[in-house]
Amino acid sequence: MPKAADGSIKVSDKDGTEPVKSYECKKTAIFLKTSKDAINGSQFHKLAKNTIKLAGKNGDEAATETDTQTLDKENGIAFTVKI
Q1: Whose CA is closest to 26, among 48, 43, 11?
Q2: Contacting residues for 32 by C-beta, under 8 A, at least 6 apart
Q3: C-alpha 25 chain-centroid distance
Q4: How far is CA 2 from CA 10, 14, 22, 77, in A?
Q5: How far are the Cα atoms of 1, 13, 16, 48, 51 from residue 10, in angstroms, in the given order?
Q6: What is the pTM of this model?
Q7: For residue 14, how far is the Cα from the chain centroid?
Q8: How does DSSP classify residue 18?
Q9: DSSP 46
Q10: Which helix (DSSP H) or strand (DSSP E) does residue 48 occupy?
């Protein structure tokens, strides 16, 4: 594939006018800080479906936990902390 002057690569149909879908991308180590690889859909889904749960303890009282939430919530995730 030829590169443009700015270093980008255009992926398009045989006439060079319409963008095309990229599929069967190889799974790579995208979570490395130095990674410059593209991410495929299954890797993105795995990341977005991670969960978070918080726990806290006050003195000798029993620890309390929040409900588990997935990180793909629209408008973010929310937890209420009572002291």
Answers
A1: 43
A2: none
A3: 16
A4: 8, 14, 17, 43
A5: 8, 10, 8, 28, 36
A6: 0.38
A7: 32
A8: S
A9: H
A10: helix 41-48
CB neighbours of residue 6 within 10 Å: 5
**pLDDT tens string 25-57:** 666 676 677 777 777 777 777 777 788 888 888
User: DSSP state, 4?
Assistant: P
Residue 49 has φ and ψ, to the nearest 5°, of: -90, 5
| CA dihedral over 4, 2, 20, 8, signed as positive or negative | negative
Question: Residue 3, Cα to own-chain centre: how many angstroms?
Answer: 28
Can you tell me which residue has the tokens 């990180």?
A: 71
Q: What is the pLDDT of residues 56-82, one digit of tens each?
A: 888 888 888 888 888 777 777 777 766
**Residue 41: which H helix or E strand, with range?**
helix 41-48
42, 67 contact by CB (below 8 A) = no
